[in-house]
Amino acid sequence: MTGTPAARYATDGGHPPAAGAGSAHQQGGVELEPVAGPTDWEASSAAFAEATAFHRYDFLEAVAPAVRCRFVPLQVWYRGQAVGVAPLLVKRLGPFCTINWVPFPYLGPLVPATLLPATLSALRTEARRRRAVGHQQSFSGLIPSRSASGFAFATDRSFVISLSNRSEEDLLAAMDKKRRQAIRRTQRLGYEVGPAQRRDFGPVDAWIGEVYAAQGKRDSYRAGTWERVFAALGETPGSAFRAVRQGGRTVGMAAILATARRAFFWQVAIDPSHRPEHPQELLTWQALRWARDAGLAELDLVGAPNEGIAEYKRRFGAVERPYTVLCREAAARRAALAVLSRLRPGPAPRLPSDPLPLTES
User: Fold this and answer.
1) I need a surface site. Which of 115, 141, 188, 258 has the fewest CB within 10 A?
2) 227 φ, ψ (degrees, to nearest 5)
3) Closest CA to 255 of 278, 281, 226
4) What's the burial of 306, exposed, middle or buried (CB within 10 Å: 0-12/13-18/19+)?
């Protein structure tokens, strides 16, 4: 992963890549270039403890169409050495675009801390070239505000359950009494969790649509996302798709994705008619067991957009963990959306919002 790829050029000289080949920009000695392929991407990512399942090449390639984006994988170079990666999910909005404005967290560059400001500067240049009206870079932990390099600095939070050296009894003891009771009651009612099969995904979009409709919102993912990602990742290491069933009928689904160190509870969907019996608790418990048995250090429950969800996750013994979100919104954003409303019939387009949680009881 050393050497100089033929496509490289600097912003202050050289020749740009061919149309459609990607981009390369240099800031402070850092260059961004199209990655050679999945193998180089994964090798670079694996060097960083802060890498998440949302940095996995296979996940980003599968999920990009589901959020109406194109995956642009960039290698970060410094002084002739590949030093990291920068994932871009680019969504076109007429002549403009958004970058990494997606309904899941942690989508930001993986580079040595000393190179982060220069990498972010190079990403800002790339965003200007693409006419980005919304540009976000986020991280799985906190970074110094001085590294923000022209982005607005904010923090969000997730909730994480440690798994290292913990037995099933330890994990259950860390939950509040009602969570333990709900898991046992669900099991007594005949709910069982097992590997998902393709036929399980049929009702998922309807379940999710019902939840969003009740909130006056819409899903940020396209219909068929679960099945698409399952088809791409279902048989790969570090992926667990689980179905909860009662009497042979599928009433809930969960998707857990992992790196070599950590698991991430990406999505859960429950048949609303079964939610009062709490099959989601059983799915969470099985996710914990799967991650622990796989030798992973922790399970990240991924986000908490409101205090109700935060409290729900605390009841599983999860600990709050803040993380950094960097954002830039162009002054032309409103003008861009106004242009789009004239170009396209129907309601004016909007930038993606945070995902709606599916459980909070």
Assistant:
1) 188
2) -65, -35
3) 226
4) exposed
As a whole number of angstroms, the distance between CA 123 and CA 144 comes to: 18
CA–CA dist 112, 343 (Å, integer): 42
- Closest by Cα among 244, 165, 231 to 198: 231
CB atoms within 10 A of CB 177: 8
Structure letter (DSSP) for residue 292: H
CB 229 within 8 A of CB 66: yes
For the domain 159-322, what is the CATH superfamily, name and number? Gcn5-related N-acetyltransferase (GNAT) (3.40.630.30)
Dist CA 90 CA 95 (whole Å): 12
Measured distance CA(229)–CA(237) in Å, rounded:
14
Q: What is the pTM of this model?
A: 0.86
**How do 262-270 and 96-99 pair as beta strands?**
unpaired
Phi, psi of 328 (to 5 degrees): -135, 130
Which stretches of the chain score pLDDT less than 70? 1-27, 331-361
- The answer to whether 256 and 286 have CB atoms below 8 angstroms apart is no
- CA–CA separation, 26 and 11 (whole Å): 6
> Residue 8: its pLDDT value, please?
38
Q: Which sequence spans correspond to the domains of the chain?
A: 159-322
Q: What pLDDT, on the 0 to 100 scale, is given for residue 44? A: 97
How far is the C-alpha of 194 from the C-alpha of 306, rounded, in Å? 30
Cβ count near 47 (within 10 Å): 14
What are the tens digits of pLDDT across the range 302-315?
989 899 999 999 99
Q: Which two tokens stand for residue 331?
A: 């002054």
Residues 6+ apart with CB under 8 A from 90: 69, 70, 72, 97, 98, 99, 130, 132
